[in-house]
Design goal:
Layout (H helix, E strand, L loop, with lengths): L2 H7 L2 H6 L1 E4 L2 E4 L5 E3 L4 E3 L2 E3 L1 H13 L2 H6 L3 H4 L3 H11 L4 H8 L4 H31 L24 H11 L15 H12 L7 E2 L1 H9 L5 H10 L3 E3 L6 E3 L2
Antiparallel strand pairs: 1-2, 2-3, 4-5, 6-8, 7-8
Helix pairs in contact: 7-8, 9-10, 11-12
C-alpha cells in the first residue's frame, strides 16, 4: 500500500499521531520515514527507541502533525485561509483577545463566534463521517476511487479516477508494463495524473537526488524527461531546492 493510501486509510488516532505501526516498524504518514522496532536510533547525540524516534522525527521534520495538516490544499481540508489563521492561533494557545489583536478583526466576541462555528463544523464532520462509514457497509455499487496524494497542489475533476480507469490508463500508456517505458505523454490531465503517480513510484522516499540522477531515471521512462520532471513538480509529487541542485519525493 502506498503512502497516500496509508494516509487516507489511517484511523483518526493514527492521523493525530502522524505515524502508523506496520509489523516490525513505524512509518511516518507525512513523509514515509521509517523506524524499525528493536533498533536504537541516534539523532543529535540523543538515543531513541523506534516509536519515540518517530515522534521526534515528526517534530523536527514537520513541526507538528497539526501544522502539516493545516498546510494541506484547501480542497483537501475545506478550510479557507482565514479559518487556517484562526486555527493556527488557537493551537498556539492564544486567547480571544490576543487572536483579535493579531488578526485585527472585530472584537473578542467575534473570535468567540468563530470558535463556535468551528465547533459546529466539528459536530457536522463527525456525523458525516459516521454516515459515510455506514454507507460503505451497504453501497455495493460504489466504485473504488484512487485516493489523491496528500501533497497535491490542486484538487479538481482530474482527481476523479476509479481503480478501473487507472488500470486501463496504465495498460494503454505502459504497453510493456509499468516498469517499462512510457508510450506517449497524453494531453488529458486525468491520464497525466495517473501516469505521473506511477512514475513517482520509481523514486525512493527520503532520498535526495542530483539533477543528473533525476534526469537519468526519467529518461528511462520517456525521452522528454524535462516535461516529466516539470509536471512531477507541478502536481506535487516532486520537490527541489531553488537552485535545482537537489530533488526529492514529496509523497
Amino acid at each position: 500500500m502506498g503512502l497516500s493510501e496509508l494516509f487516507w486509510n489511517a484511523s483518526l488516532e493514527e492521523l493525530k499521531s502522524g505515524y502508523v505501526e506496520q509489523g516490525d516498524r513505524y512509518l511516518c504518514l507525512l513523509c514515509g520515514r521509517q523506524a524499525e522496532k528493536g533498533i536504537i536510533n541516534s539523532e543529535d547525540g540523543v538515543l531513541y527507541e523506534a516509536e519515540r524516534y518517530m515522534r521526534s522525527h515528526i517534530e523536527r521534520a514537520h513541526q507538528s502533525v497539526f501544522a502539516y495538516l493545516l498546510d494541506l490544499d484547501k480542497k483537501l481540508t475545506g478550510l479557507t485561509e482565514h479559518q487556517k489563521s484562526l486555527l493556527r492561533l488557537f493551537y498556539q494557545g492564544r486567547s480571544d483577545r490576543q487572536v483579535q489583536a493579531e488578526l485585527g478583526i472585530g472584537s473578542p466576541s467575534t473570535i468567540r463566534n468563530h470558535r463556535f462555528v468551528l465547533r459546529e463544523r466539528e459536530r457536522q464532520a463527525r456525523l458525516f463521517l459516521a454516515m459515510m462509514e455506514l454507507l460503505k457497509e451497504r453501497d455495493r455499487y460504489a466504485p473504488g476511487f484512487v485516493d489523491p496524494h496528500q501533497t497535491a497542489r490542486m484538487m479538481d475533476g482530474r482527481y476523479n479516477v476509479t481503480e478501473d480507469e487507472r488500470e486501463e490508463i496504465l495498460r494503454k500508456f505502459f504497453p510493456e508494463g509499468v516498469n517499462g517505458p512510457l508510450k506517449s505523454f497524453p494531453p488529458k490531465e486525468k491520464q497525466r495524473l495517473v501516469l505521473l503517480r506511477e512514475i513517482a513510484g520509481r523514486l525512493e522516499r527520503g532520498r535526495h537526488y542530483r539533477e543528473q540522477e533525476i534526469n537519468q531515471i526519467l529518461q528511462a521512462v520517456y525521452h522528454d524527461h524535462v516535461t516529466l520532471r516539470r509536471f512531477l513538480i507541478e502536481y506535487g509529487f516532486l520537490d527541489r531546492k531553488p537552485d535545482g541542485g537537489r530533488y526529492w519525493l514529496k509523497i
